[in-house]
Specification:
218 residues, 9 helices, 69% helix
Length: 218
Amino acid sequence: MALEAQIDQGEPRWLAALALLAIGGIVMALPDSLTLGPRWLVLVLVGGLLVPAVISHRRGHHTLNHVLGLGVNGLVTVAMVGSLALLIKASPTRQETPEALLRSAAALWMTNVLVFASWYWRLDAGGPHQRDRRPGHVDGAFLFPQMTMDAAAKAAAGESAWSPGFVDYLFLAFNTSTALSPTDAPVLSPWAKLLMMLQAMISLTIVVLLPARAVNIL
């Protein structure tokens, strides 16, 4: 019971849930022609899956919580990739105005950051529940700066039991979409390298190709 209480008092999981709901809100802001189905569908599905995910976590059904979390992540990923494909298709045909293309590109760039931050948070070192069960984070897909500190330095900094939270993965995803490469945290695992390659490729498509096309047809 003490361990479960410690886990529940760990990283603020509501940040991850808020990020997923934000993705649904961003999708609602896209034009109808750039969404797969009704604009409200993603937000409703995300909210519908988050409710049993939260309940399963509170009741200690962590395997079910992990499966539901992967399902939500997969859902928002499909929605983002589908909207990006529709945006690329609409760009040369002038189906949308240049202003709408720029707004949609910015919205999808933010979605890209949130989607991959959610994947990194969900998958690294077995997921948030497994990370919280350990007294400190010493092994994972990313080499965070805190992992390179010796025990004395960690104790002096009050980071003896440090474990990455959602903000750490959000910062990692933001850097990947901005610099198109990792910055403070080198990537160690093959699956993480593949995901970061995919994220950088999506970001490059959004940041370079689509705004350039929109400005060209102004």
